Structures are given as C-alpha cells and as structure tokens.
Amino acid sequence: xxxxxxxxxxxxxxxxxxxxxxxxxxxxxxxxxxxxxxxxxxxxxxxxxxxxxxxxxxxxxxxxxxxxxxxxxxxxxxxxxxxxxxxxxxxxxxxxxxxxxxxxxxxxxxxxxxxxxxxxxxxxxxxxxxxxxxxxxxxxxxxxxxxxxxxxxxxxxxxxxxxxxxxxxxxxxxxxxxxxxxxxxxxxxxxxxxxxxxxxxxxxxxxxxxxxxxxxxxxxxxxxxxxxxxxxxxxxxxxxx
Length: 241
Ligand code: DX5
Ligand code: ZN
Fold this sequence. Notes:
- The chain has a single domain (8-240), classed as TIM Barrel, CATH 3.20.20.70.
- By secondary structure, the protein is α/β, with parallel strands linked by helices.
- Strands 1-8-7-6-5-4-3-2 form an eight-stranded parallel beta sheet.
- It has nine helices and eight strands.
- 38% of the residues lie in helices and 18% in strands.
- Strand 7 (188-192), helix 7 and strand 8 (210-213) form a beta-alpha-beta unit.
- The site of D-xylitol-5-phosphate (DX5) has 22 residues, from strand 2, strand 8 and helix 8.
C-alpha cells in the first residue's frame, strides 16, 4: 500500500482495465474493521482483488447509514485499487460530483432512486467516471432497456440493499442470465449480496463477472485465501458458462 497523487490518467487506466472481460472480486469494506481500514485495504491489495467496493448508504434509500465522501477521499489516498462506489442514496444526481472528486473510479447508482437515469449518466460522463446502474431485487431486467447500452456496468442486487451478511436470493439468477445475454464484451455484470463459496459458481454460470463479497471475505479466518478461492471458483464456473 502506498500514497500517490491520483490523476485522471490513473482513473482512465483503471477504467480501461474494467473494459476487458475477466472474473474480478470486489471486496466490500462494509464488513471491514473500520478502526483498521488502511491495514485491511492493504490486505485486499495483497490478495490480488482488483476492485474495492464502497457501500454508500443514506438512511433514506436504504434503512442504514454507512460511509460518505470523506471516507472515499481517504481511501483514494491510500490505494491504487479500482474504487467501485455503490450509491444506495436518494439523490445520485446531486452526489455524483462529490464522489467523483473524492476519487471514485466508477459510480453505480440505483435505477429506483431517480426519475431520470439518463441525466445521472450524462453527469457522471461529464465528470469522467465510470457509470454503473443497479437494480433492486424487485426491479425487472427490462427496466434497463432505455439505458443499457450507455453504462459500463450493471449491478444486480442479490439481496435487498442495506446490510451485509444476508442470504443470496436465488431467483435473481434468472435476471442475471437475462441481462448477461444483452451486454457487450466491454460491459461488466456485477452481483452484490450473499456472494460466498456456496453461491459464486451459480452467479458466474449465469453470466456475472464482477463479484462483490463483504462478509465472505472479511469474516473469513484468512481473507486473502478467501479472495483467491472465490476467484478460482468463479473462473472455473464462468468457463462452463
Ligand atoms: C448491501 C451492500 C453490499 C454488502 C454485501 O447492501 O450493497 O455490498 O456489503 O455484503 P455481503 O457480501 O456480506 O452480502
Ligand atoms: Zn454494494
């Protein structure tokens, strides 16, 4: 782990990385020990995870509060990992800029949180950050139709957002399959919620390629080994298709 002055070149390199199809694990720091956050991020780097998932909750869109702009800013200063910022907030248009300036590489917002997703996408493009769109378990895949070709990543929630450590919702596999069949090779399909060794293979077979894992990684006896294990299970299952 080291401090660098992050530039827009760093961000565009990281975004370029994400455009290449590959299996990637995105540990979610929601389950980290926040008193030792820098240390825990260093461990994630050593484990060769490619993304760091940051869950932003406002107590309105979801019934929980988590971290905000200053934490993203501090995390950006201590790592070169790809910062995958997941906004679970009611006003993504307003907060696009503060999170982009704090150092997000990609900002994912919820389609349920805005009447005009295209406007949020345009704002994020102006700010030169990657764009992700997320769907709650109750939102059908076809809600994405008008904007699917405009985003870098689709995030399918496999739990109701708000808390770590919930059980994977199996019927989401069908939604993953439906969306996977419509994406271009440069677009990623991320899953979030209940991803662990007993669920990751099914999600990978259904077509997901970025896997958020909070409790599975941070509650493991050996978090680094858990990242490797998740990665190899997903890689093998993804090849089976
Ligand atoms: C849930 C968050 C997740 C959470 C996942 O609302 O979006 O990213 O950290 O936690 P696990 O992997 O424990 O289900
Ligand atoms: Zn998340």
